[in-house]
Amino acid sequence: MTRHPHGRRGILAVLALLLTATALALGPTATGAVPEPAWWEPAARPSPDSAIGVTGEPFRGTDAQGRVRGFVDAHNHIMSNEAFGGRLICGKPFSEQGVADALKDCPEHYPDGSLAVFDFITKGGDGRHDPDGWPTFADWPAHDSLTHQQNYYAWIERAWRGGQRVLVNDLVTNGVICSVYFFKDRGCDEMTSIRLQARKTYEMQAYVDRMHGGPGRGWFRIVTDSAQAREVIRQGKLAVVLGVETSEPFGCKQVLDVAQCDRGDIDRGLDELHALGVRSMFLCHKFDNALCGVRFDSGALGTAINVGQFLSTGTFWQTGKCTGPQQDNPIGSAAAPGAEAKLPPGVSVPTYAADARCNTRGLTELGEYALRGMMRRGMMLEIDHMSVKAAGRALDVLDAASYPGVLSSHSWMDLDWTERVYRLGGFIAQYMHGAEAFGAEARRTDALRERYGVGYGYGTDMNGVGGWPAPRGADTPNPVRYPFRSADGGSVLDRQTTGLRTWDVNTDGAAHHGLVPDWLEDVRTVAGQDVVDDLFRGAESYLRTWGASERHTAADDLAAGAGATASSSEWWNPFTRYAPGNAVDGDPGTRWASEWSDDQWLRIDLGRVRSVARVTLDWEAAHAAAYRVELSTDGTRWRTAWSTTAGDGGLDTARFAATEARYVRVVGVRRATSWGYSLREVGVHDR
């Protein structure tokens, strides 16, 4: 059969016309184009999934003065389901298999929750609950359900849409809890868990990114410096900061008071954490370790944790009388039979004197080394959970270096430290208490925030086994009225629904992280707009502390190697010299010591006239109760730059207006002990 030479071209022309017509019929037209989703809406949210319950564009940018706006959750645990052996917190913050896989209970909780052992230990009862999560959520998440996921990604998204702009994800675990808990699917090494949680946080970022069209497109942004955080917030997104809260960082536990780590372990650990993106951390948590002593827990929980302290370290907590106004929490004395059964035969939890409220263990030499290592890396120290003895020394070290990087993120420090933290340039957040209690504490410290020009934060401690604000009731005279506007006024929030369950903060309390905006509205209703305004300035204050830590440079020590003379030197030991030069040799292992009488002095010659604004004094046990710092340009005429009659030893910092001086003299007026005055190191600085 012979084909017509033009037949093939004719068929192709017809096909082209048909394809063009089909494309025009199926594709968008100029008048019927499918709009691109708004930048805050995902292009491909999983289906089914949780509703968000928020309408309106999230606010972007800064105010007219260039300050970021928004709330800061300074203490959260997004990935703690991966901690404690992997089966203590049930459910996940995200899953590639979808919401039904993410929000399901631990297998041992089926069919009725009777094996929810940790619930039984922490809140009594028998732990029974309806284990079904998606789609019914009959019993969890709830404000008093301590072992179920509260940080599903869509709930965090709602908090972001409601005004939260910084979230600190503390990577958390505890090897002892892991080892004694009945159910686990992995090992208990704390650093292994920290690495996994960091990786999972980055995977969650990628998960959100894919919904929004690719890398960098999502609202969940892990940041590693304050400038990056500011840029993320300028774009209207959530800046996520990694922290660490664990009991044995770098393997630094202690057994029978013997450290199980050294300086090399600390350096390697800090380098690794910094490379993971960690920018804040606790040096100790719940149990004393090789770095510091802890602030006690109270009640039956305190007894249980003291048992854990023994199992971890071989010793129970040890207490003594406090030397200042600050005190640790009272040690729990209530029985905790489930925990006490773990003790060896014949061993029991000791009793403690009511007037001995302070942990005898403070910041150890290794702990101070770790703190200084954090400072060199621009990291921020969390002082919550530190004993007052440890926190006091840590604040002394920070103060001596004028280092601002100190945080109290969830109401676990002695409140008497508040002004000292603000004076350093640090940041404070309050635990997510009920609206009335939260407002009362916010008002107690309002004048200090006003004086130092700082905002406020909250620490939700979600997934942290802490308990959260209970409902005030449907019949309260001043309920949260839905829908309501976000603090910035740009978004509208209605009740939040996931599956078949809809939550209402009036009747459910703060059941999960998605109800943070509802809780904030409750705070506004109960405590007032001014408290919420302070909280809305929290992100800026947190970033100021972080940025100042990054920019910090150590001031030169003008006294290093300088000439030093003294009124006297202790001489009775022929094998040790206590010469004046020991106080300026840079070695804290040597010291100057005077004779055993009140009126003694140490004089330092800076070599030439310099500007002097700060003197640091590291006292040995034989310290001054009253002393003064004097300055002179010629060594003859002296003037007092600073003095105290309440010296308590340790590391003191004397600050005063910058003054020209060649000579610095420390004059002891009254001794605190029967010995003389003894100084390990004296530093002199121009700022």
TrEMBL record:
<keyword id="KW-0732">Signal</keyword>
<feature type="signal peptide">
    <location>
        <begin position="1"/>
        <end position="25"/>
    </location>
</feature>
<dbReference type="InterPro" id="IPR000421">
    <property type="entry name" value="FA58C"/>
</dbReference>
<protein>
    <recommendedName>
        <fullName>F5/8 type C domain-containing protein</fullName>
    </recommendedName>
</protein>
<dbReference type="Pfam" id="PF22633">
    <property type="entry name" value="F5_F8_type_C_2"/>
</dbReference>
<dbReference type="InterPro" id="IPR008979">
    <property type="entry name" value="Galactose-bd-like_sf"/>
</dbReference>
<dbReference type="InterPro" id="IPR032466">
    <property type="entry name" value="Metal_Hydrolase"/>
</dbReference>
<dbReference type="InterPro" id="IPR006311">
    <property type="entry name" value="TAT_signal"/>
</dbReference>
<feature type="domain" description="F5/8 type C">
    <location>
        <begin position="548"/>
        <end position="687"/>
    </location>
</feature>
